[in-house]
């Protein structure tokens, strides 16, 4: 599979939005289709990194590059993809495990308050 990591700003938080797609598609064409889609949803986004992604069970790895976008994959992209459902694309500098981050967020902002 291939992927593109889009960078956007929501309030004061930078968020990363991964888009994963089959190898038959070209990075540049997917990016040109996704940017207007994200804009329609109110998100100004630009490709930040791209390459190939391997997902095997709970293991995610990102590697390679996009020749058409002239972007490299980043090792930290794997953590963003793996934890996206839990952290919503917030790039954690330490790339902490998702459960540790969720515990911290729950203590800071309890549900319903």
SSE layout:
Elements: E1 2-10, E2 13-21, H1 27-40, E3 45-56, E4 59-63, E5 65-66, E6 71-72, H2 77-87, H3 98-108
Antiparallel strand pairs: 1-2, 1-3, 3-4, 5-6
Summarize the structure.
By secondary structure, the chain is of the alpha+beta class. The chain is 32% helix and 35% strand.
Structure description:
With 113 residues, the protein is an alpha+beta fold. The protein has a single domain (2-108), classed as 3-Layer(bba) Sandwich (Pyruvoyl-Dependent Histidine Decarboxylase, Chain B). It has three helices and six strands, in the order ββαββββαα. A hairpin with a 4-residue loop joins strand 5 and strand 6 (71-72). Mean pLDDT is 82; it is low at 109-113.
- Distance from N terminus to C terminus (CA atoms, Å) equals 40 Å
Q: Which blocks of ≥5 consecutive residues have pLDDT under 50? A: 109-113
The CATH architecture comes to: 3-Layer(bba) Sandwich
Number of domains: 1
CATH class division: Alpha Beta
* CATH topology heading: Pyruvoyl-Dependent Histidine Decarboxylase, Chain B
Estimate the helix proportion, in percent. Answer: 25-40%
What's the overall geometry?
A: globular
Main pleated sheet: 4 strands, antiparallel
Strand order of the largest sheet: 2-1-3-4
Average pLDDT confidence is 82
How much of the residues is beta strand, in percent?
Answer: 25-35%
* Overall strand count: 6
Number of helices: 3
Query: Structural class of the helices, strands and pairings?
Result: alpha+beta
């Amino acid at each position: 599979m291939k992927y593109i990591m889009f960078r956007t700003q929501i309030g004061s938080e930078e968020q990363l939005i991964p888009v994963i797609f089959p190898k038959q598609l070209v990075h540049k064409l997917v990016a040109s289709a996704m940017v207007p889609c994200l804009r329609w949803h109110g998100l100004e986004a630009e490709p930040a990194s791209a390459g190939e992604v391997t997902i095997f069970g709970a293991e995610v790895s990102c590697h390679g590059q996009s020749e058409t976008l002239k972007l490299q994959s980043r090792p930290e992209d794997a953590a963003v993809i793996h934890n996206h459902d839990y952290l919503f694309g917030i790039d954690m500098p330490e790339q902490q495990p998702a459960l540790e981050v969720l515990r911290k967020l729950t203590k800071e902002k309890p549900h319903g308050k």
